[in-house]
Amino acid sequence: MEVWRLIDLGASEPYMAQTFYEAVAKSVGEGESPSTIILCRPSKPYVCIGYHQELEREIDLEFCESNGLPVIRRTQGGGATYLDSNQVFYQVVAHEDSEAIPAGVDAIFRKLLQVPVNVYRALGLKAEYKALNDVVVENRKISGNGAGRLDKSIVLIGNIILDLDYDMMGRVLRVPSEKFRDKLAKSMREWVTSLKRELGSAPAQEEVARLLAQEFQRVLDIRLVKDEPSKEEMRIFRDEVYPRHLSREWLYMPERRHQEIRKIKVSGDVHVVEADHKARKMIRVTAEVVQDHLKDILISGDFFMIPEDALPLLEQSLLHAPTEYAEVLQRVRRFYAENSVETPDMTAEDFTSAIMKALQ
């Protein structure tokens, strides 16, 4: 039986709650720390966007700034969301050699999300796992989760939702109109729920943390030992992780890869094209086309890609490609094969379809 650490950070400021696990992942990957489960909750509200999303397209930055809401880009894929102290976070950081963690992102989700399912059931809800990365109650989402690799660590992050501020969830997002925002808030109430909504009141956060620790031990067949962050992990967070997440380079990462696309003066043989394509996840494509060839391309969206930082390699592999389906598909498939990439619930054909939708 593997022995893991259990670190309970309690109420933590937003950057600590959202990103400290990255410092732990580096330490675990280097063999300086054992595999670890972190529990925490944000002490203040903030907004979180997915690794591949374009910041200004997803978030109403003016509203967030005027309301003192930090915006944090996480290191996993997925969509934008509003978070506050009514969520209890669990963050699993396992060394890649751990026998408690299965191979492949799909299998990781299936196994580890049994933990929040069991916690919700222990609290009185008929929770179920819904592929790829959700826990639902009567088909309403009640836990959001992401997974990936950091250094030599396998990471899964997720939450137990005690209560939800639906109005703020809709307000922080950039939308085309206020009428659309009203529809969005209504839709959220229909497909996202919480313990308070389902039970009439939310359990104590300490009880949720106790149940999470209990179920992680049982599902993973490990023994958890309570511990504190190491001095080296605190140094990594202070000197590396925290400054990176504060930087403009990180916040605007997708846009900064291809700053010139939207500044191009369009002429006879030069076109800037764009499209959103909804597969199981949303893919957005912006491209510069010159004489029926891709000169530049930016791909963003709320999908997962493992490793997350492989997306620029896909964009690079598409440069100068003829704007023909067969040629684009061949290059996308080669990217998957040469880089051992996983895109859970998404295929090479999905990305090709998104690109062709823009080109057409």
Shape: globular
* Strand-residue proportion: 25-35%
Sheet with the most strands, sense and barrel status: 8 strands, mixed
Gyration radius (Cα, Å) is 21 Å
| Gross CATH architecture of the largest domain | 2-Layer Sandwich
The H/E string reads: EHEEHHEEEHHEEEEHHHHEHHHEEEHHH
Q: How far is the N terminus from the C terminus?
A: 55 Å
- Binned, the helix content reads 25-40%
Number of domains: 2
- According to CATH, what is the class of the largest domain? Alpha Beta
Quick synopsis:
The protein has 360 residues and is an alpha+beta fold. Helices cover 40% and strands 27% of the residues.
Topology:
Blueprint: E1 2-12, H1 14-29, E2 36-42, E3 46-49, H2 55-58, H3 61-66, E4 71-73, E5 81-83, E6 87-95, H4 105-112, H5 114-122, E7 127-130, E8 134-137, E9 140-150, E10 153-161, H6 166-171, H7 178-191, H8 195-199, H9 205-220, E11 222-226, H10 231-246, H11 248-251, H12 253-257, E12 270-278, E13 282-290, E14 293-301, H13 311-317, H14 325-339, H15 348-359
Parallel strand pairs: 1-2, 1-11, 3-4
Antiparallel strand pairs: 2-6, 3-5, 6-10, 7-8, 8-9, 9-10, 12-13, 13-14
Helix pairs in contact: 1-10, 5-9, 14-15
